[in-house]
């Protein structure tokens, strides 16, 4: 079908020519660039990179928000023979230094002057970096030799003066050649560089195409807002749209997503579970302020939609009611998301089935998938036929999946990475006899759907030798309206305890009622706050077995965040960091 990602792109650009491809917000309005325009920029930048010395196997880091320049830079690096190294815009200079140094990058492409300053701070004493290219026009940058600073337009113009046939040369790139090195977000320590070959991402594209066939052919539109530095968005939010000839709208910002949905009117949305959880909370908050009749209609829409999802037959009366609430309730919800959604795909972390069924019942089908950076990342995904919210769907075609004796999910196929960059020991640990050891625990159901039950390394083994899933308990805790974040602890301990971050709006209401000020962190120790939160803990405990129940908890004043390194850029908690920061409080809970 295609040998590499660059040839795939050029083939689509030749076929689609002047059709719209990438959309970027300019002064509040989305403006379009065509396939042909983007192809010309990719070729020019690739030739410009060649002029700067980028050759086969050289690494180039990208530090940028989602925008057309990200895709152009990514493809140009590969077309020049190089390997893309994505980095999060939220990285500190120290995190940039680690990735730039560990990857041995020759250069960095960065979007803005603000981000460039952070990158330049990371380059002190890094001898192998030769250039920094800044996309947006800015005042002259000061870069210490041997680093040279260039403007984006300057390198594009330089490439325009060259006449190398980049399209023809791209055909020599092989499927086993490295396309990118994506550094995992590091929930358990320093990130590892996953070397993804072209075949791995192409395999994901083919699997995505097969999964989308059930939705019906059409001109698809994606809204890109997850970081492109994450494997999920890189493969499914960028290269899958390229493979099907779709349009991509780049969201202006997370804060302005509501308006972006209305303007872009996407047909396909890819997001992490936290996005769906936040959207559910916002919808429920608005419903709580609605009239009694509107609340009753909303409740009916949920009840009837969930009944259909469960395979229940609707009576004549329920059928008529379902048609009514579809017009009065679901149409309004669908309109908030642009009115054209065919599929909302969830990945990157486990999705609570109740959240998925909430959106399905409201006319927005959510399909949970599963994968990891080491597999391109897509391994399995639900489809409209046989949709099961409690699973991550059946494996994609041409993927072998089996369950090891200890319950670990093993994966084999073209989607599997080449290995970890400059880390042979870690590579040998997860790649054995051709199988990728995912580190996830699961089962394969009778209908071939894959069910994830836990993360192998996150399992708590208490002092009685019982294996306990903290992720499941944390999910139940954060579904409570009082609780925003939670971390469960108890390895080698007699029982479980938890760190709780209250939800901001609930906390403000409590503080007002209790006459407590929130301008310092002392409120977290207030006994009346603990008493107010206890019913929420008790309600969750009532759903758990004896060994899973939370015996004691502490309230954390500072939320887990990317800035304090307690969340990964994809909003997963970094347990080792949180344990380190709150070690004394956790130990005190066992006093």
Could you describe the 3D structure shown?
There is one protein chain. With 591 residues, the chain is an alpha/beta fold. β1 and β2 form a beta hairpin. α2 packs across α3 and α12 packs across α13 (316-336). The longest helix has 21 residues, at 316-336. It is globular and about 70 Å long. 45% of the residues are buried. The model has no long low-confidence stretch (mean pLDDT 93).
Chart the SSEs and their pairings.
Layout: H1 5-16, E1 20-26, E2 29-34, H2 35-51, E3 59-63, H3 68-79, E4 83-87, H4 93-103, E5 107-110, H5 113-122, E6 131-134, E7 148-151, H6 152-160, H7 166-170, E8 178-183, E9 193-197, H8 198-212, E10 221-224, H9 231-244, E11 247-250, H10 257-264, E12 268-271, H11 273-288, H12 292-309, H13 316-336, E13 343-346, H14 353-361, E14 366-371, E15 378-381, E16 400-403, E17 408-412, E18 419-420, H15 424-430, E19 431-432, E20 435-444, E21 450-455, E22 460-461, E23 467-468, H16 470-478, E24 483-489, E25 496-502, H17 504-514, H18 527-541, E26 550-555, H19 575-581, H20 583-588
Parallel strand pairs: 1-11, 3-4, 3-5, 5-6, 6-7, 10-11, 12-13, 13-14, 25-26
Antiparallel strand pairs: 1-2, 8-9, 9-18, 14-15, 16-17, 17-20, 19-20, 20-21, 22-23, 24-25
Q: Please give the alpha-carbon distance between the first and last residues.
A: 63 Å
Q: What is the fold named in CATH at topology level of the domain at 5-174 and 218-264?
A: Rossmann fold
Strand count, sense and closure of the main sheet? Answer: 5 strands, parallel
Structural category is: alpha/beta
Q: What's the CATH H-level superfamily name of the domain at 5-174 and 218-264?
A: ANL, N-terminal domain
């Amino acid at each position: 079908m295609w040998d590499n990602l660059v040839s795939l792109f050029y083939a689509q650009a030749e076929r689609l020519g002047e059709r719209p491809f990438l959309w970027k917000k300019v002064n509040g309005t989305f403006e379009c660039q065509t396939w042909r325009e983007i192809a010309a920029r990719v070729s020019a930048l690739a030739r410009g990179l060649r002029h700067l010395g980028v050759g086969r196997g050289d690494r180039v880091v990208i530090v940028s928000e989602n925008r057309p320049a990200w895709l152009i830079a990514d493809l140009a690096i590969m077309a020049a023979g190089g390997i893309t190294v994505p980095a999060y815009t939220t990285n500190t200079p120290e995190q940039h230094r680690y990735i730039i140094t560990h990857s041995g990058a020759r250069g960095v492409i960065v979007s803005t002057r603000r981000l460039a300053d952070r990158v330049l701070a990371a380059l002190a004493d890094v001898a192998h970096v030769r250039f920094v290219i800044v996309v947006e026009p800015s005042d002259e940058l000061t870069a210490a030799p041997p680093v040279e600073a260039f403007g984006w337009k300057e390198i594009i113009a330089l490439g325009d003066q060259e006449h190398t046939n980049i399209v023809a040369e791209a055909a020599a790139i092989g499927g086993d050649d490295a396309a990118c090195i994506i550094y995992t977000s590091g929930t358990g320590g320093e990130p590892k560089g996953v070397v993804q070959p072209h075949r791995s991402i192409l395999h994901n594209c083919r699997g995505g195409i097969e999964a989308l066939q059930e939705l019906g052919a059409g001109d698809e539109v994606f809204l890109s807002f997850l970081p492109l530095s994450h494997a999920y968005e890189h493969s499914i939010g960028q290269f899958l749209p390229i493979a099907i000839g779709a349009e991509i709208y780049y969201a202006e910002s997370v804060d302005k997503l509501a308006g972006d949905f209305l303007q872009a009117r996407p047909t396909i949305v890819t997001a992490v579970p936290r996005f769906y959880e936040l959207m559910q909370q916002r919808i429920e908050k608005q419903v709580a302020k609605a009239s009694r009749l509107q609340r009753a209609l909303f409740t009916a829409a949920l009840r009837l939609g969930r009944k259909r999802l469960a395979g229940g037959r609707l009576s004549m009366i329920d059928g008529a009611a379902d048609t009514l609430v579809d017009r009065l309730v679901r149409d309004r919800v669908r309109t908030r998301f642009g009115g054209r959604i065919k599929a909302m795909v969830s990945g990157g972390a486990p999705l609570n089935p109740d959240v998925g069924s909430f959106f399905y019942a409201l006319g927005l089908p959510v399909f949970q998938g599963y994968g990891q950076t080491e597999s391109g990342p897509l391994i399995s995904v639900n489809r409209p036929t046989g949709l099961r919210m409690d699973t991550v769907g059946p494996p994609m075609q041409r993927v072998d999946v089996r369950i090891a004796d200890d319950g670990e999910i093993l994966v084999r196929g073209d989607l599997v990475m080449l290995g970890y960059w400059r880390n042979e020991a870690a590579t040998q640990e997860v790649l054995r006899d051709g199988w990728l050891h995912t580190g996830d625990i699961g089962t394969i159901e009778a209908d071939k759907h894959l069910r994830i039950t836990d993360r192998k390394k996150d399992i708590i083994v208490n002092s009685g030798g019982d294996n306990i899933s903290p992720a499941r308990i944390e999910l139940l805790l954060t579904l409570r309206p009082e609780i925003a974040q939670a971390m469960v602890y108890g390895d080698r301990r007699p029982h479980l305890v938890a760190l709780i971050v209250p939800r901001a709006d609930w906390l403000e209401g409590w503080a007002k009622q209790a006459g407590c000020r929130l301008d310092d962190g002392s409120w977290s120790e207030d006994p009346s706050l603990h008493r107010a939160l206890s019913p929420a803990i008790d309600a969750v405990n009532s759903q758990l077995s004896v060994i899973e129940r939370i015996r004691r908890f502490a309230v954390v004043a500072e939320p887990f965040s990317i800035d304090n390194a307690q969340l990964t850029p994809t909003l997963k908690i970094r347990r080792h960091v949180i344990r380190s920061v709150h070690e004394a409080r956790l130990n005190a809970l066992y006093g």
